Amino acid sequence: MESKRTGILAATFIALAVLFFLFPIFWVIVTSFKTPGDVMSYPPTLFFTPTLENYPAALERQPFLRYLTNSVIVTVSSTAFTLIIGTLAGYSLARFQVRGKRHITFGLMLAKMFPPIILVLPFFVLLSNVGLTNNLFALALTYTSFNLPFITWILWSFFRDLPKGLEEAAMTDGCTRFGAFWRVMLPLARPGIAVAAIFTASISWNEFLFALNLMGPEHATLPVMASNFVTVDGILWGPVTAVGTLLMIPMLVLTFSLQRHLVAGLTGGALK
Amino acid sequence: MGATRRQFSWAERVDRRLPVLLLVPAGALLIATFVYPIIQTGWMSLHDWGVGGASGFVGLDNFVSAVTDSRVQLSFLRTALFIGVALLLQFVIGMALAVAVSRMRRGRGLVTALLVLPMMVTPVVVGLIWRFIFDFNFGILNQALMALGAQQLAFLSDPAWAMPAMILVEVWQWTPFMFLLMLAGITTLPAEPFEAATVDGANFRQQFFLIALPLMRPVIISAIVLRFAGLAKEFDKIYVLTGGGPGSSTEIASLLIHRSAFGEFNFGYSAAIALVLALIVAIICWFAVKAMYSKKGGM
Predict the structure, then answer these.
(1) Cα distance from N-terminal residue to C-terminal residue, chain B
(2) Looking at chain A, which residue has its C-alpha nearest residue B30?
(3) Nearest Cβ partner of B277 from A115, A125, A206?
(4) Closest C-alpha among A115, A90, A85, A114 to residue A104
(5) Cβ-based contacts under 8 A for chains A and B
């Protein structure tokens, strides 16, 4: 009896939680297909004739394609930089007796926790002085720097768990150390690299603070574009929800298609 | 013959130094992007520094005014309140959800996949979503209040409601993270102590507080430390939702630093506040990471 009652309680709790965590997303997506009249109607309608008019309206207000291109350039290049540098460092920490290793990994964890707001101003001054504000690769490099500590950490823990014997076998067969790393270890670490790639890509795709302050309007990214919808003359909820939906789609697809990796990465960083 | 030998010895030399060589790119980048900016910030904080650059050395004046400025003090207290309340709520709700979901026989994967969605949404978009929900006229929350015959609430422009609203949004986006970690912690708990406790007649509450919680200590510490760091970084959502307002009722430290630099162009002053924040966060993180390390038994 007791366990049946707690079972019902638990199920109700889970149902309410799912409702709370999903409803806002659902509501924004639904609203993006409403006409302005339906958006403003009271009581709110759940049954309405869907329209696509908010999407072109949203895209006309801002040069969406340019922002999309900027976002893709920054995301792809910072992910590539981070993975290359992070893989090398993670492998080195996992396999060699580097002096001060404990301090290095400790420092990585500290760096991961450092609030980026403290770095914005000096970066702004630095980039202004060398004329690199409005340079997308400079922005990608700043993303690389704050993604790197955690990515190195993740890759270090993946490499550490790979059996050591494989490299030694490769080296007795005439591989150099680097060759053993490149041809044997790298392919084995592919799942870890996938987790790391998802992480850097999503952080770069979502990043707002640096893009807002280091890049001019021509070189801003999608989150900056989305935030622009708020400050202009009142808020038109139709186009705003359309933009929100457009930005959510890649992340929702990513979540569902790569859920296993995501959970592994999120918990791996904390549970290893 | 000579060429191949030279090549070989070159490769050999690279190989011998490989451990350090592999760390060089990461080390160089991290020094360039962490050490340099902190030195630069320190330098700026000692000057009266505006848009045009430094206009005079002022020593520690910026720090003295920052520490004695009631706006700065309030902002730091507000940050502590925001982090403390959000962290507590995320932990309690996340843990409760994890316990409930861990007892599900079917559909655990689906529920987990659905519950993690909020933390995958771009923070700026989270801000937009909740601005819409909180909207005075068209927001679903106020429409629900009207349907119940209650007064509409200006969630984002009433100083009494703005901070609770921020905390609610933060709880919405990041409780799923706590839930994931706690669920992972629960599913890796060994079964034996609980079987023994059941035989001895321990009820659920006793088993949870006396067995599960102590066993999960490492995961709990990690989760709290990681969420603390995340909360200390918060900027995007509040920037979109209230911009620190109304007045300065949601102006947490990151927004204050941003406003004084890019709104008021008081770079030197902003740098001083940033350094004070950096010092506080660094001290807390130092102990936090130490705590994470010690439970892992030295890595």
Answers:
(1) 46
(2) A145
(3) A115
(4) A90
(5) 283
Q: What is the pLDDT of residues A80-106, one digit of tens each?
A: 999 999 999 998 888 887 777 778 877
With CB atoms and an 8 Å threshold, state whether B146 touches A42. yes
A198–B contact, CB cutoff 8 A: no
B160, B73 contact by CB (below 8 A): no
Read off the DSSP letter of residue B263.
I
DSSP line for B231-262: HHH--HHHHHHTTT-STTTT--HHHHHHIIII
Q: What is the mean pLDDT of chain A?
A: 83
Task: Note the pLDDT tens digit of each residue in A198-211.
Answer: 888 888 999 999 99
Instruction: Name which of A39, A118, A176 is nearest B41 (Cβ-Cβ).
Output: A118
Are B131 and A227 in contact (CB < 8 Å)? no
Contacts of A89 in chain B (CB under 8 A): 22-23, 25-27
Q: What's the average model confidence in pLDDT over A137-163?
A: 87
B115, B181 contact by CB (below 8 A): no
Nearest CA in chain A to B131: A230
Distance CA B44, CA A121 (A): 10
Helices (H) and strands (E) counted in chain A, each on its own, are: 15, 0
Nearest chain B residue to A98, by CA: B19
pLDDT at B234: 92
In this structure, the dihedral spanned by the alpha carbons of residues B198, B204, B207 and B209, taken in order and rounded to 10 degrees, is -170
What integer pLDDT is reported at residue B93 of this predicted model? 96
Q: Which of A39-53, A198-212, B255-269 has the lowest mean pLDDT?
A: A39-53
CB-based contacts of A104, cutoff 8 Å, min separation 6: A93, A98, B23
